[in-house]
Design brief:
Elements (H helix, E strand, L loop, with lengths): L8 H6 L7 E4 L3 E5 L7 E7 L14 H17 L6 E3 L15 E5 L9
Antiparallel strand pairs: 1-2, 2-3, 3-5, 4-5
The structure holds adenosine monophosphate.
């Protein structure tokens, strides 16, 4: 049986059970550095509400999703990035490994396109 979403590693970070390198927090979300950075700057922005992924998001999550993207841009600015990439992997086939919605903010080096 799939584990409840609040039992993901990000749920544990949100509950303060395991540490993170926090760069931003507010009432709706938390942003922290990825433990396996794929670029000089690699930050994850996660909602406090345990939404599984974008595919599971509902109409009522619209304002929250907008907020996560605005925070992604804010942390990119905070990190001094001129250009950056935001990635939301949704589903195992797309590379999602933690089933608590998160926005990757990646930058600090030239980024190739298309992604792998
Ligand atoms: P995804 O593959 O899109 O689900 O992304 C999950 C990301 O979470 C990966 O880039 C991992 O390196 C990152 N990650 C996993 N555990 C932690 C952790 N404890 N602290 C920070 N980042 C983590």
């Amino acid at each position: 049986m799939a584990e409840p979403v609040n039992e993901t590693i990000f749920g544990r970070i949100l509950r303060g059970e395991i540490p993170c390198d926090q760069v931003y927090a507010d009432a709706q979300c938390l942003a922290f550095r990825d433990v396996q950075p794929q670029a000089p700057v690699h930050i994850l922005v996660i909602p406090r509400e345990p939404v599984v992924n974008l595919a599971e998001a509902r109409q009522e999550h619209g304002p929250l999703l907008g907020h996560l993207l605005l925070v992604a841009a804010q942390v990119a600015r905070q990190e001094g990035l001129e250009g950056f990439r935001t990635v939301i992997n949704s589903g195992a086939e797309a590379g999602q490994t933690v089933f608590h919605l998160h926005v990757h903010v990646i930058g600090g080096r030239p980024l190739a396109w298309p992604p792998g």
